[in-house]
Amino acid sequence: MRFGKDRKLFCEISPTTHMISEKKESLKKHIKDMMSKEKIARNKSRKKLRNVVSAKDSQLIKKGKGIDPVMQENKAVNINLACKKLNGLVIHPGETFSFWQSIGPTTKRRGYKDGRVLINGQLYPGIGGGLCNLANVLHNLVLLSPLDVTEFHEHSDALAPDHGERVPFSAGTSVSYYYNDYRFKNNTDMDVQLVFWCDAEELHGELRSEREFPNTYSISEEDHHFEPEGDEYYRISKIYKNTFDRQTGELVNKELVLDNHSKVLFDHSEIPKELIRV
Fold this sequence. Notes:
Blueprint: H1 15-35, E1 51-59, H2 69-86, E2 90-91, E3 96-98, H3 99-103, E4 114-119, E5 122-127, H4 131-143, E6 148-151, E7 183-185, E8 192-198, E9 202-209, E10 215-229, E11 232-245, E12 251-263
Antiparallel strand pairs: 1-9, 2-8, 3-7, 4-5, 6-7, 8-9, 10-11, 11-12
């Protein structure tokens, strides 16, 4: 609740008040989950399911003006720790996956380090920072499947410059322990499984199943560009999930999954000039 036109919300005053608000919302979420009858996936298997539904790789260490290399190295450590919690997790039919119930608290005691966290549109160091990168890879895997996303929180899809060809939805998924979760439900008739691992340079993820689904999926982006708004720039685009019949290749559904209006959080000089519209 705001107390006047120019008054900030309590959570917007500072990183400290934001943390206090997070603790309150996390407690409320924990209580709600304790009372819920939703079945959360918890079983893991070392044996991989045979069919790869989707696969996604992501660069672990990003470089560019204003990007702290130490925070990037710490992010890689955090992602590697969290990957081990997700790797091999099986989501049975009717079960729901919860990012935070799978990974647990990201504390120093568990080996997590300071990485970049996004608070009120600004980047700060924070324990366990960088796991939005992992959540975003996971979201991309799920979008390329018939699984139903049941909880999703958006943040800027312009955290770092695009190196090479633009990848739609390369960022944009927000998670924050415990209240900003990422969840999906397996409403299919077969088990699915998450497989994650890291090497020196990249995060690798796979979504597997017992057999092929009747449809295939792709992600497309339209009208991608940048626009100035005051002293800031924003990435503008529309991102779609496309569903195709596996046998005929016919497009059977096109769903808007992100009406992108993301504040650019990297150095504005790295925005490609040809993509700027005034």
